[in-house]
Amino acid sequence: MGLSGISLLTTTYSLILQHQSLLLCLRAKGFGLDLKKDMEGVDYLSDERKKAQFDVEAMKIAWAGSLEAFQLSDRMAKLVANDPAFEKFTRPMLGRKELIKNTLRKAAHGWKLIVDLRLTEEEAKWLRLYIDEPAYTDLHWGMFIPAIEGQGTEEQKKKWLPLAKKMQIIGCYAQTELGHGSNVQGLETTATFDPQTDEFIMHSPTLTSSKWWPGGLGKASTHAVVYARLIVGGEFHGVHGFIVQLRSLDDHSPLPGVTVGDIGMKFGNGAYNTMDNGVLRFDHVRIPRDQMLMRVSQVTREGKIMQSDVPRQLIYGTMVYVRQTIVADASKALSRAVCIATRYSAIRRQFGSRNGGPETQVIDYKTQQSRLFPLLASAYAFRFVGEWLKWLYTDVKERLAANDFSTLPEAHACTAGLKSLTTSFTADGIEECRKLCGGHGYLVSSGLPELFAVYIPACTYEGDNVVLLLQVARFLVKTVSELGYKKPVGTTAYMGRVASLMQNNCAVQTAEGWLNPGAVVEAFESRAARMAVRCGQQLAKYENPEEGFAELSADLVEASIAHCQLIVVSKFIEKLQQDIPGKGVKQTLEVLCYVYALFLLHKHQGDFLATGYLTPKQASLANDQLRTLYSKVRPNAITLVDSFNYTDHYLGSILGRYDGNVYPKLYEAAWKDPLNDSDVVDGFYEYVQPILKQKLRTAKL
Ligand SMILES: CCCCC/C=C/C(=O)SCCNC(=O)CCNC(=O)[C@H](O)C(C)(C)COP(=O)(O)OP(=O)(O)OC[C@H]1O[C@@H](n2cnc3c(N)ncnc32)[C@H](O)[C@@H]1OP(=O)(O)O
Ligand SMILES: Cc1cc2nc3c(=O)[nH]c(=O)nc-3n(C[C@H](O)[C@H](O)[C@H](O)COP(=O)(O)OP(=O)(O)OC[C@H]3O[C@@H](n4cnc5c(N)ncnc54)[C@H](O)[C@@H]3O)c2cc1C
Fold first, then answer.
1. What pairs with residue 278 in β-bridges?
2. ∠ CA 576-579-585 to the nearest 5 degrees?
3. What's the ipTM?
4. Average pLDDT of the chain?
5. Where exactly are the structural domains of the chain?
6. What 3-state DSSP class applies to 490?
7. What is the CA(467)–ligand 2 centre distance, in A?
């Protein structure tokens, strides 16, 4: 018997086993048989795993970034998965009060582990990630502490950071207001210096100045970094951060003059409702002068404003830091959804049965592949661009510490643009994964609805995605306008070759011709450069540049997307120039890299054609190559998602189970729903039976 014969037999056997276990479950419900007899321990995806053409363990390390990073993340994932305190199956069924209490309990348990096991900050970060429940701790560690680190003086850091790091105070980041989020300079909360008492008076003068949205503010935080208009001597001196105590450290009650609470339920069940996003108002609350974060500007005892040589934009520094982490998180969320959709697509069968044999695995449909594999490739692309962005951020941070601010504008543009690009794509990608799972994807037990509901605000928080792309556009327009006398560097270095990028057209003649990193990068560079230059030319026609910018903003957003996609493609290609150990690992990643690039080229072929860089024939050749690449991904699909090394606990999905034992577990889960606690539904006697028993008098009905 040939290999394909053996494989057919094993597949059929797997199917029979699945059907048998389903039958056992069905009987279990009907006749009280033992549910445990379903085929626990059988790997329904083992045939798929045997198809791998690369070393999965080595790919896990490539995904994690290093052996140490892999081991650390794996250890934390298992620690959480094996601890029943972190169970999350019932989360979407909990009411809001229970939900928040449950989250507080998990956060406390997590903190106990961190202290008892003496975990490092890096380990603690991974532990919180795998607990997988948005909580006040995200903002405490993710924004409150970084805000003090980035904007505090040495003295302020010495005072506040030990308290925060030992969790003797809990902090949040209170910037957004009811009336203003994107427009930070439009914030209305005031911090007025009182030279008599050497204090700032924090005040919310209008309803719209109420702080609105800060995570952790609603119920947990004792302190906040509050962004407010600095007023000294009756004059406005820009928006600054102030450390303000909100609640008593004894009984947690709000301090005098502070009104604080939760803003209410948000999208989805469970999901982001575990977070206490809050509202906050001040009625002339006094804080000592030294609680203004004073790295950028200082207010002296006499009420003089002193500017340090640190640029004003550093006030926005925490956002640069968090946007960078959000890019890394995009790859986690997308890879999680893709892992679920890929495993389930290999289990799910529809149509195509011949002679009573098994139906076709839906993953073998070319349409399924053309929707799923670009998402898989994007998860890897975002992982690597996230790694690069982390490097860029670390580099900027070191430069800032040495008072070199030259790379801050680029860091701002890259973090803003990539945050926007990756979160928008990931949010759409999770929803696509739900559709790829058909009807079962809509079940909460698929894990996808909650993942989607938790993820989508990433398109809004830390800067609305369109507003952020407009920031990139400003950076690009500036770069283009300076081309005559300033050499562009970093991610805009390609603009230095603008003349040739505008003139030269694509040389690819065959589908194989697209398997060339140089050809791919040049295509993306030419498209981005041409779109940016075109915007620059259009803008030049306006007398008032701001009016022109507003008028052309939709085109500017497109140009920014082209620039950011170029960054992701280039960083993936650069990654492949490194030494990546493991049999077949680099080759498999090369396939994914081409999938990512050619998928984008196909999707945005309008840009490539309209800018005149590609001919329709060359665009069509790229699409031909893409189909071939999908066939190369197919045998590796399951092991490529195994390489994310996600535990079943973290995935939280019956469809994405590692062992593929989907149907019995779906069936079992249905019976755990509280609605099935009784056969006759609550409310039947009040509301249903009277209808069934009614005797209608009218003949018409
Ligand atoms: C742990 C994860 C959970 C996350 C929970 C969520 C938390 C949050 O959402 S916190 C709140 C986040 N809020 C935002 O992101 C607000 C978005 N708005 C802004 O960032 C800014 O207001 C703006 C950038 C959209 C506009 O700033 P503005 O000063 O009014 O306007 P300009 O365009 O004139 O910019 C002036 C100048 O500053 C540069 N710049 C702007 N932002 C930054 C930055 N973050 N870092 C460095 N530089 C920045 C900008 O490029 C301009 O430079 P020049 O052109 O050289 O003058
Ligand atoms: C779940 C969640 C958690 C959050 N956590 C925090 C937190 O911890 N701390 C905190 O301070 N804030 C937090 N926020 C607030 C968040 O940062 C803001 O909501 C975000 O910055 C967007 O601002 P906005 O709500 O003012 O949107 P708006 O600016 O009102 O956006 C509305 C629409 O207008 C468009 N728009 C706005 N300005 C422009 C423009 N110049 N040009 C073109 N279009 C424009 C936008 O694209 C969008 O379509 C959180 C928000 C959410 C949803």
1. 262
2. 65
3. 0.99
4. 94
5. 1-42+661-701, 138-308, 318-642
6. helix
7. 9
Are the C-beta atoms of 385 and 567 separated by less than 8 Å? yes
Which ligand gives the minimal distance to the CA of 414? 1
**How far does the centroid of ligand 2 lie from the alpha carbon of residue 267, in Å?**
16
Counting beta carbons within 10 angstroms of the beta carbon of residue 537, is it exposed (0 to 12), middle (13 to 18) or buried (19 or more)?
exposed
Q: Is 258 in the pocket of ligand 1 (CB under 6 A)?
A: no
List C-alpha distances in Å: 257 to 189, 200, 282, 625. 14, 14, 6, 65
Q: Flag whether pLDDT at 361 surpasses 70.
A: yes
User: Residue 603 corresponds to which tokens in the numbers above?
Assistant: 């999707």
Residue 401: exposed, middle, or buried by beta-carbon count in 10 A (0-12, 13-18, 19+)? exposed
- Give the model confidence (pLDDT) of 12-38 as tens digits: 434 444 444 444 344 344 334 344 445
For 682-701, how does the pLDDT look when each residue is reduced to its tens digit (9 = 90+)?
Answer: 999 999 999 999 987 665 65
567 within 8 A of 491, measured Cβ to Cβ: yes
Coil, strand or helix at 173: strand
- Print the SS3 string covering 568-636: HHHHHHHHHCCCCCCCCHHHHHHHHHHHHHHHHHHHCHHHHHHCCCCCHHHHHHHHHHHHHHHHHHHHH
Please indicate whether residue 265, judged by its CB atom, sits closer than 6 Å to ligand 2: no
pTM: 0.94
Mean pLDDT of 583-589: 98
SS3 of residue 270 by DSSP:
coil
| Residues acting as catalytic residues | 462
CA distance 315 to 140: 18
pLDDT of residue 353: 84
On the question of pLDDT at 7 being above 50, the answer is: no
CA distance 202 to 289: 11
Contact present, 269 and 89 (Cβ < 8 Å): no
Name the residue at shortest CA distance from atom 19 of ligand 1. 182
User: Token match 């894990």: residue?
Assistant: 447
* Ligand 1 proximity of 412 Cβ (cutoff 6 Å): yes
**Ligand 2 pocket member 660 (CB < 6 A):** no
Q: Is 32 exposed, middle or buried (0-12, 13-18, 19+ CB in 10 A)?
A: exposed
The CATH superfamily of 138-308 is Butyryl-CoA Dehydrogenase, subunit A, domain 2 (2.40.110.10)
Atom of ligand 1 nearest to the CA of 415: 45
Task: Provide the CATH topology of domain 318-642.
Answer: Butyryl-CoA Dehydrogenase, subunit A; domain 3 (1.20.140)
Q: Residue 263, SS3?
A: coil
Mutate to test the pocket of ligand 2, among 138, 176, 556 (most ligand atoms within 8 A of CB): 176
Mutate to test the pocket of ligand 1, among 326, 471, 492, 556 (most ligand atoms within 8 A of CB): 471
The H or E element that residue 500 is part of is helix 498-503
First-last CA distance in the chain: 67
| Minimum CA distance residue for ligand 2 atom 29 | 182
- Protein residue closest via CA to atom 39 of ligand 2: 467
Nearest to 103 by CA among 257, 276, 222: 276
Atom of ligand 1 nearest to the CA of 215: 5
- Residue with the bigger pLDDT between 199 and 92: it is 199
Among 175, 213, 469, name the best residue to mutate to test ligand 2's pocket (greatest count of ligand atoms within 8 A of Cβ).
213
Cβ pair 419, 426 in contact under 8 A: no
Residues 6+ apart with CB under 8 A from 467: 182
